[in-house]
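Feature request, filed as a ticket because there's no other form

It would be nice if the structure record came with a short human-readable summary line next to the C-alpha cells. Right now we just get the raw output. Example of a typical job, pasted below so the devs can see what we mean:
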Amino acid sequence: MASNTAAPPVWRSWVIWGIAASFYLAAFYIRVSPAVMTQELMRDFRISGRELGNLSAFYFYAYVLMQVPTGVLVDSWGARRLLIGGALGAAAGTFLFASGDSFVLACLGRALVGASTAVGWVVTLKLATHWFPARRFATLTGLGLLVGNIGALFAQVPLRLLVESFGWRAVAFASSGFMLLTGFLAMLLVRNDPAEIGCETYAPEVLRNREPESLLHLLKGFRRIFGYRNTWLIFCAQGGFVGAMLSFTGLWGSPFLKAKYGVTSATAAGVCSVMIICWACASPVCGFLSDRVGRRKTIYVGGAMTAAAGWAVLFYAPGLPLWAFIAFAAVTSLAAGAVILGFAYAKESVPVQFLGTTSGAINAGNMIGPMLLQPAIGWALDRQWTGQSAGGTRAYGVHEFQMAFALVLGWALLTVVLTSLTTETRCRQMGAS
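Raw output as currently delivered:
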C-alpha cells in the first residue's frame, strides 16, 4: 500500500461495521425469541415440550455445524459476500418459519436461520480488523458483544408486547424484512477492505498476504487443538455456562416463572431481561479483572462455582419470593459472565498458529450447550407431564420443571469440575508448536 494513501473516512468505517453489527444483533434476537412465545408456538404447531425444545434447538444444530466452514468462507468469499449471503439466508429462513403451517417447515426455517447467522460474529470481527486500527479491536469486540446482547433484550419484554399486539407470525415476518434490509445495505455499502475504495487498509501484513485455508487444513487444525488438555476441558465447560443461560432465558425460563409465581408473560420476560443485562455487563468486567490480575483459572472456576450454586437456589430453594429469585438470578448471571474467559484461556493454551481455529472450536462449544439442553429439558418435561393443559397446550408444573432442570444443574456442576482441572496460563501463550 503506498505511503501517501489516505486512511478510510471514519464515518465509512463505522457504517460498514454497524451494518455487520446490526446483523449480529438480529442473530441474537432470533436465537432467543422463542422464549416469549412458547405457548403460541406449542398451540399453532400442536407440539409438546420435547418438540418445542427441538424446534428452538434446530437453530443451534445448524449454527454449530457452520462453525467449521465459516473461517474458510470468510477468507475465500470475503466478509461482504458472506454478510450478504447470511442476511438473505436468514431472511428466507425467518420467512419460512413465519409462514409455515407444519412443524417440519418451522424446523427447517430455524435451521436455515441458524446456519445463516452463524457467520455474524466472524464477519463483524473481520471487518473490524480491516477498517479500524488494531488498538481499537478490543473495544470493538466488547462493543459487538454488547450489541448482540441488546438483540437478546429486544427478544424479551419488547418482543412479548409486540406478539401480544400483532401475533407472533406478523412479528416474524417483520424480522424477515429487517434481515432483507440488512442484506441490501451490505450489498450497497459494505466493502471487504479500504483498499477497494482507494484507501489504506488497517489489516496486519500477515492477513494481507495469507492464502485462504482449505477446509481439509481447517479440519486438521481442529484435530490438533484437541490434543491440548485445556482445549477439550474448556470446550465442554463453555457449554455448561452458555447452555444454562440460554436454555433458561432463551426458552424455558418464562414458562417456569409463570408456573412458579403466576406472573404474566411480560413480567417473566422482564426477569429474563435482568439476567441478560447482568450477563452482558459481567463479561467485559471478568475479562478486565482477569487481565489485571494475570490469571484465568481463578475467575473462571469462581464463576462456575457461583453459577452452579445460583442455579441450585433458583430451581430448588423452597418458598423463595420473587424479589429474592430476581436477586439470585442476577448474581447467577453475573457469575456466568466468566464464560468470556474461555476464548482467551483456550487461545493461550495452544500454539499461536491455531488461534483462529481455537476460537471457532470454543464458539461451537458455547452453542452445543443450548443445542443439547433445550430439547433435553423439553423431553424431561414431557416425561413428567401429569396430563394438565391450558389454552390448548400442555401445562407443566413447578415439580416437572424442577425435575427437568436437574439437567442444567448437572452440567453446571460438571463445569465446576472441568474448569478446576484446567492448567493456568497466567495470561501468556503456553502452547508449543
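Something like this underneath would help us a lot:
The domain at 1-212 is CATH 1.20.1250.20 (Growth Hormone; Chain: A;).
The mean pLDDT is 89.
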